[in-house]
Write the C-alpha cells for this entry.
Amino acid sequence: MEKSIIVENLAYRYGDLLAVDHINFDVKAGKILGFLGPNGAGKTTTVKMLTGQLRPYAGKATLLGYDVTKDTNKVQSQIGVCFEQTNLYEQMSAIENLKLFAALFGVNNFDGYALLERVGLAGREKDKVSGYSKGMKQRLMIARSLVNRPQIIFMDEPTSGLDPVSSEAIDNIILEERDRGATIFLTTHDMWEADKLCDRVAFMNQGKIEALDSPRNLKQQYGKRSLIAEISSNGDAIVKKEIDMDSPNTATEVEKLLTNEKVITLHSEEATLEDIFIKVTGRRLTE
Amino acid sequence: MNSRIIKALLKKDVSLFLSNRFYFLITIVGLILYIAIYFLMPSEVNEELNLAVYENENTGVFSQITGEEGINIEYFSDKEVLRQAVMDGDYHVGISLPDNIIAIWQAGEKPDITLYYSSSTPTEIRDAMVALISEIAYIQTGQSINYNISQEVLGTDMAGAQLSLRERMRPLLAVVILLMEILTLASLISVEIEQGTARALFVTPMRTSDLFMAKGILGVGLAMAQAILFLLLANGFDHQPLIILTTLLLGSMLVVGIGFLLASLSRDVMAVTGWGMLIFIILLIPGFGNVMPGLLSDWAKVIPSYFLTDTISRVVNYGAGWSDVGINLAILAGLTAVVIFAGMAALRRRYQ
C-alpha cells in the first residue's frame, strides 16, 4: 500500500521555541492517523506545515508524492482541511460557501446539495450560516473539506464540543471517507474517538512524537489489563479487588476469588489511550 | 494568477459587501450625502466689490463711483485699521491715499497710492483697481500716469481662485468618496483574517496573488464607480475626461494600497475604524486646501493624496491639460505603486 504522507525530520521554530522537533512518520493511503497531544504540543503547527500554511524550518513533508514546500499548489488541490475553529462565511448560505470552495478547487458539475444532504443539512442549504447551531456549522465545515473529493483530509478536533448525535454523524463521515480510500489525519484530544476511529495514533508532546502505533499495540505495549471485582464483606460493606490479567497467577486468583468471596460485580478493564499517554509522556492529554 | 479563482473570490466579496448592511449603508448613504452637499453649496460667486479707502481729508476723489451698483465704499481714518480689515477679508481692496493728494496733483507731482488686497481678491479685480485709480487720476488732473502705485497682498495670494464654494468642494468630495473605500476594503479583509476564513482560502489552490487581485479589483471598482458617478452629476467631466478617468483610476489604486496597509496594521474591525479615521483625516487635508486656498503650503505635498486632489482640482476647476498635470500624474503613479507594493508585502505577512 502506498504512503500518502511521508514526514522526514520535520521541524518548525517560533523564535527560540522549537515547536516541532524533527519528527518522522508516514501514513498509508486509506488509513486514519490520530494525532494526540495536549495544547501546545505542536499538533497544529505540524498540520500547518503539512497543508502548506507554514514553511518548515527543517526537514521535508511529502504528500501524494509531492514535496509540500515545492509543490504547494499541487498538494493543496488534493487535500481537504477541516479546522478546529469554525471559519465559515457566516453571511453567506451553506450552498454559497460550498460553491465558493468548489470554484476555488475548479470542481466541475459540483453538486453541493448532495454533499449537504450527506452531512445532514438537507433543507437548510440556502439559510445563512450565521443562523446555524454549532453542530450544523461543524457539519458544514466537514462538507467544505470534502468539496474536492480530497485524497488526504486533515481534521482538527472535528467533534470538539458537539453533542453525541452530531459527533457520531461526523465519525461516520470520517469512516465513509476512509472507506472511499481517503487518508485521514485526525488531530484530537478525545482518546475515545481516536481509539474508535484511528488505525494508528501518534502521541505528540513538546514538539516530539513520543509513541506511534495502533491503539491495540500501544495498549499491549504500555497498558495493563485487569479484572475489577466488587465484593461484599461483613454485611453491607463493598470493597473493590483488582486482579492483573497478564500475571501467571491470574487463573488461580480468579478461582480463589469466585470460591471464597461473595462477588457482586466482575468487570474486565483495559488501559485507555489517556492512561498510556500519561505513562509515555508524564502529562495528561487535556492539560 | 488564475482567472477562475479571481472570479470566484470577487463574486464572494461582492456578495459579502452587499449582504453587510453596514458597508452597504455607509456606501450608499455616504454617496447620496456627498452629492447632496455638493448641490447645497452656493454655485454663484458674490460679485459685489467692497472697497476700503483711507484718506486724511475729504478729497471727494471717489465721489464719482460712490453709490454705483455693486460697489460699496467705506472710509477709514486709520491706515492700520484699514489694513487689518482687508486682511480679515472684510474688504476686497483697500486704497490708501496720501495726505494732501489734491495739493500734490495740483503741484504737478505724482502722489504715492497704495492698494491693499485681501488674499482671495481675484486678479481681474486687481487689474480693475489699477485702471480705476488711473481713471480717477485722469479725471482729477487731465493727465495720465500721474501717480506712483504700489500694491500689497495681505495674507497668502490666491489670485485666480474665483470659484464658487460648490466648485471648490468638488475635488474634496470626489476624494472623500474614493477614500471611504479604504475603510470598506480594510474592514472586509480584516473580518476575513479575524474570523479565520482567510486561513480556509489559503489551503486551497488559491495563490496570494489571486487574492490581492480580487481585492484590488473590488476596491478599485467600488471606489471608481462612486467617484465617476459623483463627478458625472457634478459636471466634473466637462474638461479632459480622460485625465479625470486616469486620475480616478490611480486614486482608486492608491486607496486599495492604503486599504491593504490599514488591514495589515489592524487586529480587528475596531482597529480598522480607529486607524482608518486617522488616515482618512490626514488624507483629506489636501482637499481642504481647495476649499480654503492659501491654507496649505508645500508641506502638504508629503501627503500621498495631495497629487490626487490637486490634479482633480486643476483639471475640473481650471481646465488643465496633460502637460499641466503630467508631473502630478507621474508622481501619483509612483506613489500608488509604492503604496500598493508596501500594502501587499505587509498584508502577506499578516496573512502568514
User: Anything to note?
Assistant: The domain at 3-220 of chain A is CATH 3.40.50.300 (Rossmann fold). Chain A has two domains: 3-220, 225-269. Chain A has a mean pLDDT of 88.
